[in-house]
Input
Amino acid sequence: MSTRIVVDPVTRIEGHLRIEADIENGKIKDAFSSGTMVRLLEEILRGRDPRDAWAYVGRVCGVCTSVHSLTSVRCVEDALDIVIPPNAEMVRNIMFCAQYMHDHVVHFYHLHAMDWVDVVNALKADPKKTSELAQSISNWPKSSPGYFSDLQKRITKFVESGQLGIFSNGYWGHSAYKLPAEVNLIGLAHYLEALEWQKEIVKVHTIFGGKNPHPNYLVGGMACAISTDDVSGLNAERLAYVGQLLQQGKEFIEQVYIPDLMAIASFYKDWGAIGGGLGNYMSYGDLPWNGYRDTSSYKFPQGAILNKDISKVYDVDLRKEDEVQEFIDNSWYEYKGKGGLHPWKGESKINYTGPKPPFENLDTTKAYSYLKTPRWKGNAMEVGPLARVLVGYARGREEFKMVVDKALKDLNVPVTALFSTLGRTAARGLESTLVAQWGLDFYNQLIDNIKKGDVRMADSSKRNPEKWPAKALGVGHSEAPRGALAHWINIEDEKIANYQLVVPTTWNASPRDGKGQVSAYEAALRDTPIADPKQPVEILRTVHSFDPCLACAVHLYDEEGKHISRISVLGD
Ligand code: NFE
Ligand code: MG
Output
């Protein structure tokens, strides 16, 4: 007999995610992932000016801020055959890199670390030993015994007050926590430092895009004029500040994030064999050096891997109607036709058939989610850091090989350990180091261009709708922090006739398809050991390793979209 447990809402994520899992003999036998809110950006966009779409879709989510705007301007530029100047490409890339650095560090410390780090246990650490350990793994200056003992005193007061605040509702003391107290204290210290740090790196967006979250984009380029001596333009001082922020960001990643990740991972090597899931991975690729159309110039290569076979990488074509398709067999939508739809023909009509709240369980033999189910050539695919790193590795890219092989050696784990919860969490850190360096490379390229006298930032030759064809189709893609992201647009008579977003969390968190094939979360949760069904920290480990974002995934809150809260983890 299996017992069903429900985690709803899963916290320390963006949006509303519900996991139902059947536990049998101490393991998850089957799992169901449900997005419990609905968003309909697609309808909001219909009939609008395509040049404005970026401003709407950017608001899909405040976590992966900017990536939807980037993807949107790319899809409109694709439809209207607009090529942006190199400076705009570099600015977009630098913003992309800053976004990754921010998002991945925040994910690691604030959304995921508490699945591994026991905050309450950190109070038992010896500050002197903690200092020695910290100094043995990193040159990060804040590492004296006094620093750690002061922190411990602050947290002790907090815990004694009985109000854990941001640390309330954790499973502290759970047998699945394995770190020595000193490592827990380092993790806790850096959780707090990362909170301070993250507000700095986003200034890159405010300099180029006016604000964060949701910086400004522009169809045809970027909306920031280079003017080296103008106080209000992108002047020499501001450009220098960007360089400084990128450098500081890189230092934090190299001296804090990576050493912590490796230290924590070394105590959880068993998670290198848990949470693997599908074994199919896909990346659309991103970070062009030589123009968005030249996919071979991408720092993140494009490709798909099937059945963990990294000896073969398949090309992915977003224009072909039989490659990316969205199905609704188990989703609260209805289509005019049947089967899967390529996004250029995509539909988004809601049809909620689930139980009236409040309810105990979803009937998972029927539709159970507001997410659609995307497939690539019929295959369920995992997207995200692990997919990107594996595609880079399998494509033989030296930079990927170097970081991956070093991590495997340092942790003394086989390459198969990549196909796991630990592998996913490690891949996010590894790609952060690459992206931190690339951000500086793109920055140097931008400065070089400017020094050579090229200050163009936008091509406005096709911005006037009189020059547009009566009908145009476009697709734009990106690699959002959580994975492969694309938008498809149909422009008719200067307006948006249809707009579809297929986003990373839709790939990963979707319900099963009509053939019963599960998607990435459901696959990864199967066989996960659960020590205590009342405190399923193991579910959080694997689900958090994907860094869920349900706002992205189901593109507007339904005022009826109530949820019941059976197990509420780590604060609401
Ligand atoms: Ni809201 Fe998003 C990312 C996108 S996830 S976080 O990264 O696109 O589906
Ligand atoms: Mg969609």
